[in-house]
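(Protein data)
===
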Amino acid sequence: MRSMNMADSWVQTCSVFNQPKTPCRSFIGFIYKPMNFPKSKPDFLKQTKPISSFTISAIITREEEAMIDAQKDQKAQDSSSLFNFKTYMVEKANIVNEALDGSVSVKNPPMIHQAMRYSLLAGGKRVRPMLCITACELVGGHQSQAMPAACAVEMIHTMSLIHDDLPCMDNDDLRRGKPTNHKVFGEDVAVLAGDSLLAFAFEYIVTATKGVEPARVLAAVGELAKSIGTEGLVAGQVVDLSSTGKANIGLDQLEFIHIHKTAALLEASVVLGAILGGGTHEEVEKLRRFARCIGLLFQVVDDILDVTKSSEELGKTAGKDLVTDKVTYPKLLGLNKAREFADKLNEDAKQHLSEFDLTKAAPLIALADYIAHRDH
């Protein structure tokens, strides 16, 4: 019997895969009839049984399953090693940046549009748009079908950064290596720039998406809206603000914060791409589980970088979580265990892609590794 590892003990009290179901409607229902899929958990969430409870045939079956899993892992590694991620990332980032530049033009009144463009075009990794486009292509769609949605999620992400940096929130002066929006345009215009990006994101995805069934566009809009409201980003931000400086915050509350504040929009990015690309219900839900893992992974790595990198390396104020006494994974688990947790999330994220064509899934596998091992 394998011993209970670190991740087993953590997820007994808090797990991304064991979040309570909300009564909210499913937007996938707009395009699919309800389908019941068995709820699956990654290996590190499953309870093990004493070895004496297994029959010989069960042991053989388990060994065969392990061999199959190992072969899949090797194929994934082989596909990933043949895939030039740097070239792919530069290509997609350039396409996304060009699309973003064309999506928001300077018109009357000029100041608000300049403020929107200042933060939207300030650079960044463009992880969310890339996830959206890559998921679309994985299920057989073309990047043009997902590009408006990819731009929309980046607009919303930018809005969240502008608002997050405000003095009434995190009060930050630096973002993506540049002065924050309110430092350049003032707090009043910064608030309005964020509001404008949020509103325009939905207008853009509805008016600019071509070659996709209206029902799928409607489902995508519903998913995106849910990810940023009181069941998503806003919920995480509120709990984050109320938790700052408190000593009794545990892993369950920390995970709630990051599942909603960070992971929800990353999850939506992948799900939107899969929906707009024509994915089946089963494909969408497999990619949703993948995205939930990397969404939490993104924040765990962010917490680690905040205490291990400089402001120059990060392009934003380093050590801010420590100064403001925010609860983080390194603070609760220690740096080494936080890193181990990140590795486990990356491993389980990629496991959710194992039933896809691994050559086609190579970009998402590489993106998961990039999120896990990024240095800024």
